[in-house]
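Protocol step 4 of 5: obtain the predicted structure for the target chain.
Materials: sequence only (see below). No template structures provided, no constraints applied. The aim of this step is simply to have a reference model before the mutagenesis design in step 5. Sequence pasted as it appears in the construct record:
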Amino acid sequence: MNLLFDIGNTHTHLGLANARRVLRHADVPTAAWQSSAGANTLARFAGRHRLTGAALCSVVPQVTPLVCAAVQRRWGLPVLELNHASIAGLGINYPHPETIGPDRLANAAAARHFFGAPAIVIDFGTAVTFDIVDARGDYVGGIITPGLSAMTDYLHEKTALLPRIRIRDTRAVIGRNTEQAMLIGAVHGYRGLIRELLGELRRALARPRLPVIATGGYAKLIAARLPDITAVRPLLTLEGLRLFWQARGPAAPATTV
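Step 4 output (structure tokens):
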């Protein structure tokens, strides 16, 4: 069994996987690694499972060594870091590959493995990111837009009368109160944004049909009424980390943190 860590700005997504799939997953606030709370949550999550190693991807560099130290203190395990130099199962055709978020590479590698190439991944996180794998199986770039929560929170913080809202679906297209009007703008508006961007990407790739895989917190909500999205995979990043461990394993010291 292997431990997996997708270290994000708000949460760290934990995974426990065997050679075939991710068996368990949970979230811990990324800030918790600054104290013993993160390590304690990790110990409870792993339980009594016999562990052979760990893999991580991180967009918070200052937290990466804290996670590695927690794993090494408790289990003495090697921790492999997925990045542009260590990624397996994915080519990279990008001017400055060191600037690509490692979670985006994990998503792209998993999409290529499970759905083939070309493919598009949309990750609904703090930001909404599009990542493109071309017909050769190479990561070639993407698109970044503000996330749904970032947009609605910004409206609340920068205006005197707009409330903070809980994002959920709505059938209405004309808002009959402030909250409903904001939900229409967020949910229907984001579906429109995604539909338009996917149309442009299909034209750029000369592929009218190709797999579009959604992951992240709002993936299921947005995909529910957007047939352009062909699959929802909440654990796509963790699956990318699992595949990375399977390809690299503990015999690759160059990738060990």
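Step 4 remarks: The first strand starts at residue 2 and ends at 7. The chain has two domains: 2-84+240-255, 91-236.
Proceed to step 5.
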